Amino acid sequence: DIQMTQSPSSLSASVGDRVTFTCRASQSISTFLNWYQQKPGKAPKLLIFASSILQSGVPSRFSGSGSGTDFTLTISSLQPEDFAAYYCQQGYSFPYTFGQGAKLEIK
Amino acid sequence: EVHLVESGGDLAQPGGSLRLSCAASGFTFSSYSMTWVRQAPGKGLEWVSYISHDGRTTYYADSVKGRFTFSRDNARDSLFLQMTSLRDEDTALYYCVKDGATMIRGAPLRYFQYWGQGTLVTVSS
Fold first, then answer.
1. How far apart are alpha carbons A8 and A69 in whole angstroms?
2. Helix or strand or coil: residue A82?
3. What is the mean predicted confidence (pLDDT) over B18-38?
4. What are phi and psi of B31, to 5 degrees?
5. A48–chain B nearest CA distance, Å
């Protein structure tokens, strides 16, 4: 199975900051990498698929990049509604796997 | 608008069974693969199972293989997750998910495009 490791596990930042999350796969997955946002008490929401393609309706301050084993999710200028948990997920092979999640908190 | 409504979550005893359902609307159900994802209380997301658009192909997480069965009824726009030999560690919120897909160099990348609100399964004696 492909293991997905996110770093950091948590991050404190302020509104307006630029933040970056990293996701690393245990083997090469090309660009078969998706990102989700989850707010407390809510279902997850798809942000980015295929490493860098923004899901319709997602603000352009979100961006993704990477290929192979190393991927990043960047929020260019944090907004109050961005404080949430973020998960990466590989869609390269079954069983699909998620990273352990990264919590973004207000500083 | 895509709508996914899960039901069937309940309190079950270890070794017991439950059947989850998911009613889908707002899209051509028979054209899309579907997925179950679960989340234990206070924990991260865990992929559980996949079913192809026609129901012919299924995949399972190792943690549920041989105990859970994923099926669908395309005439009724419905999904089912039959859960048997339940364990404490199956306690979680179970999400029904509509897959999206795109092709990368001839291979399909599936992503979890739309999520239901989840149904809670609690396994405890």
1. 16
2. helix
3. 98
4. -95, -5
5. 9
The residue type of B21 is S
CA distance B91 to chain A (A): 16
pLDDT at A107: 87
A58-69: pLDDT as tens digits: 999 999 999 999
A75-96 in b/e burial notation, b at 16+ Cβ within 10 A? Answer: beebeeebbbbbbbbbbbebbb
Chain A residues whose beta carbon lies within 8 Å of the beta carbon of residue B111: 34, 46, 49-50, 89, 91
> Looking at chain B, how many residues does it have?
125
Query: What residues of B are in contact with residue A96 (Cβ under 8 Å)?
Result: 35, 47, 50, 110
Question: Residue B50's beta-bridge partner residues?
Answer: B35, B59
For A63-94, what is each residue's pLDDT tens digit? 999 999 999 999 999 999 999 999 999 999 99
Closest Cβ opposite residue B62 in set A34, A87, A95 = A95
Q: What average pLDDT is seen over chain B?
A: 97
- What is the rounded distance in angstroms from the CA atom of residue A74 to the CA atom of residue A95? 26
